[in-house]
Amino acid sequence: MHRLIVTTAVCAASCILATYAASAGDASASSQRTADRDVAWIVVANESVVEREMNAQAALGMRLAAVTDGLPCQVAIMQTPAMLGGGNASYRLVVDRDLIQSLPNLASEGFEPRGGVRRPGGRTHVVWERSAAAGNARVAEWRAIEFSNPDALEKDLAETVQAGFRPRSLARTAFRSWPGLSEKGLIIAGRRADAKPRDVRVLRGTSRNVDELTKSVEALTSEGWSLDLAFTSSRDGNPNTRRERAYLVFSREVGTRAAEPLRLTRSSSWGMVGDGEPVAAAPYWNDFLFAWKPAPRRQIWATPIRLTSFEASCGGLAMKLRIDGQRDQRSTIVAAIARPVQGTDGYELVLVLDERLGS
């Protein structure tokens, strides 16, 4: 029996990042694969309610799959893992102004950042997840890096990455506005106990045509650089205007060379958008930007849900998802990205799916 769970928690401002995160249970030792994977939609309206609802669904075996990026009203999407076993996850929301003093405890308790939620007029709350599936890959130390201008991000990150940290999550983007309204960006970086010094490179895209950016990504990754973080932003960081800037943060251990290159594509329609393993997805100009790693028997699909501007702003969104939202998925939901539909006042919300072919 399939379940569709739609919980209204809050009306939130836009999420600033949609990146690929491994689905729960993929690293589990269990060999029993679930066929019908329930999906729960949590419409964001109050951060404390979101934390409670996430933990309630986690107690039923679900894991956070994605937080929408590009909608005026955020939605957190939870999904049953692909593989049974590995234990339940737990979630904690930490307000950005309390983040630095909270990082030591979050590291010692085994929490990992999974993005952020923010309601209109409120502070960013970073979502942290703890799961047995993390195992020995847990981070020993977290660090928060503030930045004022993403165009200077490589310089801002250099010292931290050289110390062995890897950028892991964008808590908020930099917003450059009138004095008193501007806000610095915030990146969370993690370091394992055995970490070695790393180098950092940041690629910036400004053109709707991503051919040159794609060539740069393929060249860097073929030389051993790993994509640690990807996000898009408007020119001044305003979350409500068109995303015309793409920032791709790469790092590698000093001395590393050859590796398999990543692919980067821009798509304006739904369907199959890659033949491999998804790494990142975000709104870009009036389209979507995808980064993926070629892999056998893997495909990346984008499936759309049309929303009116009223629904996208939380008006009747819970009912819309109850009717049109997926009740279950065989594939893994890895991102949920949205864009305004040109010529209308509505939005297109796209679920990005990682589909494994065969058993």
Describe the structure.
With 359 residues, the chain is an alpha+beta fold. It has one domain. The chain is built from six helices and 21 strands. A hairpin with a 7-residue loop joins strand 3 (63-67) and strand 4 (75-79).
* Cα separation of the termini: 22 Å
Portion of residues in beta strands equals: 35-45%
Number of helices: 6
Instruction: Let me know the average pLDDT.
Output: 85
Helix content: 10-25%
Listing every helix as H and every strand as E from the N terminus to the C terminus, the arrangement reads EEHEEEHEEEHEEEHEEEEEEEHHEEE
Give the biggest beta sheet. Answer: 5 strands, mixed
Low-confidence stretches: 1-31
Shape: globular
Extended strand count? 21
Sheet/helix structural class: alpha+beta
User: Any idea how many domains?
Assistant: 1
> What is the CA-atom radius of gyration, in angstroms?
19 Å
Write a short abstract of this structure.
With 359 residues, this protein is of the alpha+beta class. Helices cover 16% and strands 41% of the residues.
